[in-house]
Amino acid sequence: MSPKDGDVIGSRMVIQWEFKPAGEVNHIHLYLDGANPGPPFGTSMELTGLSNGPHTVRIIAANTRHQEVGPEASATVTVQGAAAPTTPLPAPRRSRAY
Q1: CB count in 10 Å sphere of residue 2
Q2: Distance between CA 51 and CA 79 in Å, rounded?
Q3: Which residues contact 23 (CB under 8 A, 6 or more apart)?
Q4: What is residue 52's DSSP assignment?
Q5: Which parts of this chain are annotated as the region Disordered (predicted)?
Q6: What residues form DSSP beta bridges with 13?
Q7: Domain ranges in the chain?
Q8: What's phi and psi for 78, nearest 5 deg?
Q9: Contact 16, 86 (CB under 8 A)
């Protein structure tokens, strides 16, 4: 699996893995910080817009009933240099004196 545990990356991460189906174990589930970022297809997935700080990627084999049966791989990476989130400020309002 790539990236490797301890890697320092930018706000873009390409996750790569190898998987060979065997019997009912026919796909993987992928998680970023415990959440599913979307269905993984093929052997890689690109994630962008990651925030600074640690993030954990976890990949685990699943069977035809979507039961996670292992084996699994995980890595915790640190994102550095991501742009700060931007939030538009509301337009100032004219105040009235009462």
Answers
A1: 14
A2: 7
A3: none
A4: S
A5: 69-98
A6: 47
A7: 8-79
A8: -115, 125
A9: no
Q: Residue with structure tokens 């052997």? A: 43
Structure tokens at 13: 């991460």
Lowest model confidence (mean pLDDT) among 5-9, 36-40, 81-85, 94-98: 94-98
Helix (H), strand (E), coil (C) string for 1-60: CECCCCCEECCCEEEECCCCCECCEEEEEEEECCECCCCCCCCEEEECCCCCEEEEEEEE
Report the topology of domain 8-79.
Immunoglobulin-like (2.60.40)
Q: Alpha-carbon distance 69 to 31, whole Å?
A: 15
Is the previous residue joined to 39 through a cis bond, with omega within 30 degrees of 0?
no
pLDDT in tens, 58-68: 999 999 999 99
**Which of 29, 18, 38, 33 is closest to 62 using CA atoms?**
29
Nearest to 12 by CA among 86, 85, 82, 59: 82
Give the position of tokens 């996750």. 15
DSSP state of 27: E
